[in-house]
Amino acid sequence: MAEIDLAQNASLRQLIGVVREAAANKTALRISGGGTKDFLGGPLQGDVLDTRQLSGISSYEPTELVITARGGTPLADVEEVLAAKGQCLAFEPPRFEDGERGASTVGGMVAAGLAGPARVSQGAVRDFVLGATLLNGRAEVLSFGGQVMKNVAGYDISRLLAGSMGVLGVICEVSLKVLPVAPATLTLRFDMDQPSALRRLNEWAGQPLPLNASAWWEGTLVLRLRGAQAAVSSAAQKLGGEVIPNELANAFWNGLRDQRDEFFTNAQAALAQGATLWRFSVAATAPKLALNGAQQLIEWGGAQRWVVSDAKPEQMHAAAAEARGHASVFRGRQHGSEAFAPLSAPLLRIHRQTLQAFDPAGVFNPQRLHPALS
């Protein structure tokens, strides 16, 4: 696929003009692609800066396992092109598309920094970002990294964009490492309470098993094995459990990835009654959270825990700290600054210094990443 010169893009020149004017007037801009993640993070503020005009796959080299796409490119377009060559985005980014919103975009995928069920085995979004082109708050177009790992030297700014929620600038283009689709996949089901599931997951994590993803909810543990056929077959024989038919298993994992499965459907009903969906990032070895009556879904071998609860924010943050992690509101009732994990003084200082370097006028997505960053 021939490369496309982003510098010659008229839409980019138009965006540069808008950002330059906003910086001069200190006007806030809200970076938006498909809008599928508008619920995430802090409040939406500022005039909409639509990135979908920066769309298209700039280059794709299947033999090199790298694809470069503009920030406004629909994620579905990238996945379709990759699938045609037997390749994929191994971290399984959630798409959050329900017909009422637009299509998820590549820029939004990186900015949100969210990964699906395979994150525990394959890595996070940032682990697959090789390079990026950014339009910062000074109306400068900056390029970081490249299309191969060896190009990453010094401060790895391209990976810093993963999870930045757009506060550093507009992701104009990004190069991503892709992987071949595994030759074999098998899903196993076990009846198991939460403490037993956490114990077994940690035991299995220390063994040479092709564990790709896991999920526990209401007494059921589901494992996805993925890799070479011989390795998957051997692991299935060793672990036991009930084999789930591929069609049913694929529907489950896709539903979990896009938060359309039964747990999240039930969560939406609870949110309508005033509850909140919290996302806990904790040590995988942490025991069951001390949150009586809360609905819980556990992923990533125990490291990611979804909790639906009407408990006070201070109780949730205390539970997360006890599990050597942090918690933040993902959906539902917002509590202002209490919805976010507290930032230590050194971390807050680093965040502010980084924002000052990229967006001194505070143009992009104010308070979207964290209310303390204003």
Output the keywords:
374 residues, alpha+beta, Uridine Diphospho-n-acetylenolpyruvylglucosamine Reductase, domain 3, Alpha-Beta Plaits, 3 domains, five-stranded antiparallel beta sheet, 30% helix, 25% strand, globular
Under CATH at level 1, the class of the largest domain stands as Alpha Beta
Task: Say what the CATH topology of the largest domain is.
Answer: Uridine Diphospho-n-acetylenolpyruvylglucosamine Reductase, domain 3
Number of strands: 17
Sketch the major β-sheet: 8 strands, antiparallel
Task: Provide an overview of this structure.
With 374 residues, the chain is an alpha+beta fold. It starts with 9 loop residues before the first helix and ends in a 16-residue tail after the last helix. A hairpin with a 5-residue loop joins strand 6 (129-135) and strand 7. The strands form 4 sheets. The protein has an 8-stranded antiparallel β-sheet, sandwiched between helices. The chain contains 11 helices and 17 strands. The relative contact order is 0.13. The protein has 3 domains: 6-180 and 353-358, Uridine Diphospho-n-acetylenolpyruvylglucosamine Reductase, domain 3; 184-257, Alpha-Beta Plaits (2-Layer Sandwich); 262-339, Alpha-Beta Plaits (2-Layer Sandwich).
